[in-house]
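Could someone model adenosine-5'-triphosphate with this protein?
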Amino acid sequence: MLSVAGASARLGGREVLHGVDLDVGRGEWVTIIGPNGAGKSTLLRVITGLVRHGGEALIDGHRAAGLSARQRARLVATVAQSPIIPPGMLVRDYVLLGRTPHVPLLRAETALDHAATDDALAMLDLGTFARRRLDQLSGGERQRAFLARALAQDAPLLLLDEPTTALDISHKQDVLELVDELRRQRGLTVVSTMHDLSIAAQYADRMVLLARGTVVATGRPSEILTAPIIEQHYGASVQILPGPSGPVVAPIRPTSASRTTGE
Ligand SMILES: Nc1ncnc2c1ncn2[C@@H]1O[C@H](COP(=O)(O)OP(=O)(O)OP(=O)(O)O)[C@@H](O)[C@H]1O
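Reply:
Sure, complex below.
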């Protein structure tokens, strides 16, 4: 479904991605992890053609860079880390915007577009927010609206950049379960970035660890989430515990002796 080969990108005169390869099969969920500034968001932006890049990204066999915005939006729906919030826009109108790539030019949305919008609002538990202004919602309610818009878009590839950071634990589970269910029902392909490694491990078929703009490890969560790998690339002390649905990454405080001596 997605194939990225030798992707590189320069931002602000610095190479922030280099030689990145990524292959994601249809219906697969791949989570990109890595420390702050590793290049995770940039990689998602390369896939959506939002940054100039070297190498090639193929989406469903089409060169991403050669697609029009409309063609791309029919193939890829994205939830960015900080989407633009149109001032004063109502939640339902915002979610309806997800249907834009399906609405012929100079035509109005059809009953199908409105039904897809209402479905997406219901799936994200936003029915009662439909007539509220998006810019007046809480951070978590807003994040659910961003997801609703992406789901209304009904594209086969879903890119999620830290989609649950603002959500409480219950909504976090609901949203990720929903994405997983859609993946199984509709064969949706999911590429996400996530900092919460324990949650990420519960959903990802595969993890790709980026560090300093390059892929340093790829494999099943149990292969990537090991104390030595996390120590090496995040510089963090952790203990990996066996959880009921995947490895749990527990941070360990440095001992008081090493805090005082700096060891
Ligand atoms: N517009 C820009 N101009 C210059 N440098 C940029 C720009 N956008 C991102 N960068 C730099 O590129 C690098 C990769 O950024 P990116 O946002 O992809 O990292 P990330 O892995 O998603 O980080 P985080 O986990 O903090 O969200 C960072 O060092 C960042 O400072």
